[in-house]
Design a protein that fits this description.
Structural class: mainly alpha
Radius of gyration: 23 Å
Largest sheet: 2 strands, antiparallel
Shape: elongated
Helix content: 40-55%
Number of domains: 1
Number of helices: 4
Amino acid sequence: MNHLTADQVLLDRLAGVMEPAKIRDSGGKVLGRFTPVFSEEQERRERAEKYFDLAEAERTVAEESKGSSLPEVWERIYAGEGRE
């Protein structure tokens, strides 16, 4: 099987690819497919952490979770709140 050697630019572009992807030219023609290979689960986690901060996401959800429970929503709907 023939192979290509990726330069740093290509490595940087493919760094966040976590599942098989088609590679297309600027006209949309499929040139091939790229399937990332992970030697260990830890490597996969490290690559994902580079693009997603779970702790930050949890903080954001905690800060923005000032919504209402479903019973509270139904109560407002039945009370006619929110009508213009």
